[in-house]
Specification:
Blueprint: H1 30-39, H2 43-53, H3 57-67, H4 73-83, H5 89-95, H6 104-111, H7 115-129, H8 140-145, H9 148-161, H10 168-177, H11 182-189, E1 192-193, E2 196-197, H12 223-226, H13 237-249
Antiparallel strand pairs: 1-2
Helix pairs in contact: 1-2, 2-4, 3-4, 6-7
């Protein structure tokens, strides 16, 4: 069989009414058609072309790898999502040290020591991963099922830029060291002082904070603001935060 599979066949439809088709036209058959759709047109058409590229073996994967650096951030993100579970050596190499675009602002804030902004960006990125941006809050099931690969990226960034002071892993270690006791945990990481739980605005967004103090914004600190249905947990924000924290910190995959 020839390698003409990468070219449109005589029975392939061509949008645009010209031969060769205009740049804005979409060749619906062949890898060349996929390339054209990825190079121009609406974002929706480009994303559809990314998915189509997977049908063309290594050549298609190469297009997705290139899209990891596409000028449009949404293209970068969609390409990453399509590639991250692949096992081909070329893909593994491309993703080895790759930081997905949704974590760029988190990385920059951490590098600049902007701990409050970094905390917000952590929550924002997690919401995007589980498609909860409009809802504005993570549910217990979101924390339980949050993709391990994404959790590890967030953890790696926090650990790196805080020099091991902040992050999910250090929180998990403290959680285990106090026997999963939420009150002792709150005392140790500084969320609770003199027997009273702090509000989010009272947390310390600096390296002077206790070990494991951050991140925190992914948890419920105001039930009304988050619009979350949590009454069945027990009726207090503290109860919600306990269940949420427990759901994340007792996971075994990080």
């Amino acid at each position: 069989m020839s390698d003409d599979l990468n070219q449109p066949r005589h029975y392939d439809a061509v949008i645009g009414g010209q031969n060769p088709p205009p740049l804005s036209g979409a060749v619906l058959g062949g890898l060349s058609g996929v390339k054209r759709r990825m190079a121009s047109g609406s974002l929706e058409s480009k994303i559809a072309a990314l998915k189509e590229a997977l049908k063309y073996g290594q050549n298609g994967l190469n297009l997705l790898i290139q899209a990891l650096n596409d000028p449009e951030s949404e293209m970068q993100w969609k390409a990453y999502l399509l590639l991250k579970e692949r096992t081909e050596p070329s893909v593994r190499d491309a993703l080895k040290d790759y930081i997905p675009v949704i974590y760029n602002q988190l990385r920059d804030n951490l590098a600049a020591g902007k701990w409050l902004e970094a905390d917000w960006e952590t929550s924002a990125a997690m919401l995007k991963v589980v498609h909860r941006e409009k809802a504005g809050g993570l549910r217990v099931e979101d924390l339980q099922r949050f993709p391990t690969s994404e959790l590890r990226i967030i953890e790696k960034l926090w650990e790196q830029y805080s020099q091991g002071k902040f992050g999910f892993s250090i929180q998990k270690q403290i959680w285990q060291s106090v026997g999963n006791n939420y009150f002792k945990f709150g005392d140790r990481i500084g969320w609770r002082q003199s027997g009273t739980w702090l509000n989010y605005s009272q947390l310390t967004f600096a390296t002077t904070a206790p070990l494991g103090h951050l991140p925190a914004a992914h948890l419920t600190w105001s039930g009304l603001k988050r619009g979350q249905s949590w009454q069945w947990y027990g009726g207090t924000e503290e109860d919600v935060r306990f269940i949420e924290g427990k759901s994340l910190l007792e996971r075994r995959d990080f």
